[in-house]
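TEACHING EXERCISE
Course module: macromolecular assemblies
Task: Read the component lines below, then compare them to the predicted structure of the full complex.
Student: A.B.
Group: 4
Components provided:
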Amino acid sequence: MRALLLSLLAVAAAAVAVTEHAAIGGGAFSSVLPQGEGNTRVAIGPFELDRHPVTNAQFLEFVRMHPQWRRDRVTALFADAQYLAHWRGATELGEPTRPQQPVTHISWFAAEAYCESRDARLPSWYEWEYAAAASESVPDARNDPAWRQRILEWYAQPSTRPLADVAGSAANFYGINDLHGLVWEWVMDFNGLLVSSDSREQGGADRLQFCGEGALSTADRENYAVLMRIAFLSSLEARYTTTNLGFRCARAAP
Amino acid sequence: MRESCSLRRTAVLLGGALIACSSVTMAREPSQVRHEVMEPAPAIPGESIYQLPLDLTLADATRMSLGSLRGKPLLVTMFYSSCNGVCPLLAFSMRRTVAALPPGQRDALQVLMVSFDPRRDSPQALRDFAQLHQIDRPGWWLARASEPDVRKLAAVLGIRYRELPGGIFSHSAVVTLLDADGVIRAQSTSVQELDPAFMKAIEDALR
Amino acid sequence: MLNRPGRISVLLLFILALLGCNDASGPADPAQTAQVTGGSASGDFGPPQGEPVKAVLTSPPEVPPPTGRKQPAKVIVELEVREIQKPIAEGVMYTFWTFGGTVPGSFIRVRQGDTVEFHLKNHPDSKMPHNIDLHGVTGPGGGAASSFTAPGHASQFTFKALNQGLYVYHCATAPVGMHVANGMYGLILVEPPDGLPAVDHEFYVMQGDFYTVGKYREKGDQVFDMQKAIDENPTYVLFNGSEGALTGDRALSAKTGQTVRMFVGNGGPNLVSSFHVIGEIFDKVWFEGGTRFQENVQTTLIPSGGAAIAEFRLEVPGSYILVDHSIFRAFNKGALAILKADGAERKDIYSGKEVDATYLGDKVADLTPVGEAAAARVAGTLTKDEQMKAGVLLFSGTCSVCHQPNGAGLPNVFPPLASSDYLMADKHRSVEIVLNGLTGALTVNGLQFNSVMPPMSQLTDDEIANILTYVRNSWGNQGEAVTTEEVAKLRATTKRPAGAAH
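Instructor-supplied answer key:
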């Protein structure tokens, strides 16, 4: 009986909470993060990506279903002291937090757990970069100075303003919203970007520090809009949360 | 312990007697089959990495949960068997670290090395690595886990890695000391020579 | 240059060397060897003594007091990074990334041999991660690798200050040039073991170049322009992070007879500074912030990412203008600051009146009435009298060079403004001429002129309104005031010629 009720609840929650996702065909593209010295062509397989970041409402449902992820119960291993600090209570959003805002103050472990609960995972850096290279009209807008400048303008705004709701601005070429201009987003391999903390080190870095192939310095330093995203992700540990870092889920194409 | 990664040379494993035997089977001591334990354990600290449910496959193809290592201090690091860079040095360094401990303390320290590369590091590959690097003592495990679990373990240990074409991994080399409850007590990136501060932390944990 | 005893010593040594004297390896001139500090090899004075000390950090232009220490100490520095939106020029807002809430960041003062425990905190509202590279740190990255900090977090590292000197610190997070261009730099002074000689005033000034998408003084929210930064084509070159940071009522001040020491840094990111104080000579410059000084210096080069210490004594009262002597930066991009010296006249040293107005071209020494008029206009209380007071200062700074202080113009070259029929015939036309310039033939008071007036659109709406109000009510002219709104409307509805400012 209890199992039946629980499963009905699960179905109901799932029906409320699922984000539409967009299918993105695979392909080769030129990434700022080289695979080995000078090798900037990267191939990714087809995948699906959520159309917008996970919202406060969606994460609230998840926390209710998985109470070990409540902020008053989560373990220090998986989240820092600011985890979900912007909610009024452990299972309550409260003003001024809005249900359709992207959820922030979220650690990598919590984000990954949410995605796993939906048979998904966090996107890889390459998947994220591939999807985010698109503007509204073209799949790869990275050489368009106006597109780059728009992204930079977001960096120039202080984080003190309240976050907009998800899907508030136009979707990109793939039908995906908010890859730029709303929140930073976790990726699965955030701890594999291997950029030296001193961003001036360019190749020839202490080979033993990142053993195997030396620290990979990011290619195309001109594309500083993407560089800044790598710099941001490289500053994080998996349990960290910040006021402007959220996430969305991905899965390999069926 | 410095933040920079230099290899710490390991001492020759004094337990030469232990490795005289050519068998490289990593037999688990019966007292360490902990996931069968029935009595309630004391509350686990919030920072213990044993809160991460992780399924390990060992070189002898048996399975072990990460949490079953709770109860004794542990040195843990990550590697992959086809690694030509630092991983051999890492293995050597860990052997030397253990050997540098007073004899009475050595047995109380467990060692775990988990592969970044579950696709290629089958139990056989793990056995080959152990043989090549003369790793054969009780309480020292080479293991593999699923790719998502590997990412999570690296995340709790603060290890960075990524896979490159050709099965090569670029990764940081960090040895972590966990106390008996699985809380990180110290970390060292010093692979080329013994790290005195790290040695002291180990001895404190074993007391 | 050596003094006389020094020269004699060197000569003697030379002779001794020539004579192949046994004691050819004898002591060099003691005055020279005494000055060699031995660098980092001689800078470790052992472990810290006594209780840990919390470093006093100051906001520019203030400098913390001398440490007064005689023993190495453990010094705790806590520095917070904040991303703040504030004016870079009047009416122009920019998001600066700052150490300690200011551009340049807080001034840090320690003693050679101190062990510094450095805490870097990144405010939770920051968008970006940040770190710090202090040029006074011996160690990889100058601390950058050990201080990479996500928003809402803090890092800590410890270093020993082995070398004395004045050092720049800055953020080194990718893209580094952008972090520096947004204001992430400051100075750390590592005092020599015996401290610096006492002076009456110490000031903290730091030059930086800034790159915005909009033009110089184009109003509104401006953002960083990476292409201009790569092209090394700054929009603003400023002391202490904004136009007017050190002018008007924020000018530095001292008294005649006092000694002044300036700790001058150059954060860059690109430009080298030719630092000069108009009307003063540096009695001593510790060039590059090092241990040797040069005397009697007019202009000193401060490299990007470098610093210098300049000392001088004030004898004559007046306003002394700090500039980057690559002079277009001073007058067209804002690299200008003021030190006011109060005191009794010294006609024996300087007899003339202040000629600041014409000398400076675009700027006048005391801009207080200009600022007051702008504030009054915003408050809605602006009077014609206030406009006239502001207008006369602005006119003498900008227009009088050609039209003369009495509005008479230059016969056959520049038309008169005094009792001018052409000027008073059409108020809106006169505003357009100031904004867009005027080329070609015209008749003023029956006389023919055919010349070029360049556009003056770099002047703000307030400034143009006040100048024209003054001109239209001086030297026999009598007319209505010009309002800021009229100027703004004409600026928006007419076209600027190529090359003019906004």
